[in-house]
Amino acid sequence: MAEDYKNVTILIVDDDEIDVTGIKRAFKKQGILNPVESATNGVEALEALRGELSGKPLIVLLDLNMPKMNGFEFLQEIRADKELQTTIVFVLTTSKSDEDKLSAYTKNIAGYLVKSELDSSFQKLIDLLTSYWRAIEFPEIKK
């Protein structure tokens, strides 16, 4: 059964093309029709959030280690931006560092997931996200 939950757009911010493809494939395999966009670094993600994704309810899946603008710099930027500060962000990274976890949570992330702890099909990630956006209420966003 194909579903589009609350018209939520997923923005994957990750420079690992294999992971991005795997996540997109997992959504498709589960019949989830939500739009899935991607950016290879924080700069591209900010451009998307301020451009074509502006005003849309969305969830960001954020890697921490990327070129140009890493995940921490991206979080700093969106939390300082009145238009983007409430963006829902899940960190999806290879880092198991407690320092990275603490730093990310101080930037009001919704959750911290370590890629190696997820199965290769990203099924746990898909289950978490679909449960999350089914249960929460998004504010009405006006442009």
Overall average residue pLDDT:
87
Strand content: 15-25%
The CATH architecture can be given as 3-Layer(aba) Sandwich
- The rounded Rg comes to 14 Å
The tally of helices reads: 5
CATH superfamily assignment? Response regulator
Please, how many domains? Answer: 1
Task: Say what the CATH topology is.
Answer: Rossmann fold
Helix content: 25-40%
CATH C-level category: Alpha Beta
What is the overall shape?
globular
Total number of beta strands = 5
**Biggest sheet: strand arrangement:** 2-1-3-4-5
Straight-line N-to-C gap:
32 Å
Briefly note the structural class of the backbone. Answer: alpha/beta
Largest sheet: 5 strands, parallel
List keywords for this structure.
5 helices, 17% strand, Rossmann fold, single chain, 37% helix, 143 residues
Describe this structure in words.
- The chain has about 140 residues and is an alpha/beta fold.
- It has a single domain (about 5-135), classed as Rossmann fold.
- Helix content is about 35%, strand content about 15%.
- It contains five helices and five strands.
- The protein has helices at about 15-30, 40-50, 70-80, 100-105, 125-135, and strands at about 10-15, 35-40, 60, 90-95, 110-115.
- The protein has a five-stranded parallel β-sheet with strand order 2-1-3-4-5.
- β4 (about 90-95), α4 and β5 (about 110-115) form a beta-alpha-beta unit.
- α2 (about 40-50) runs parallel beside α3.
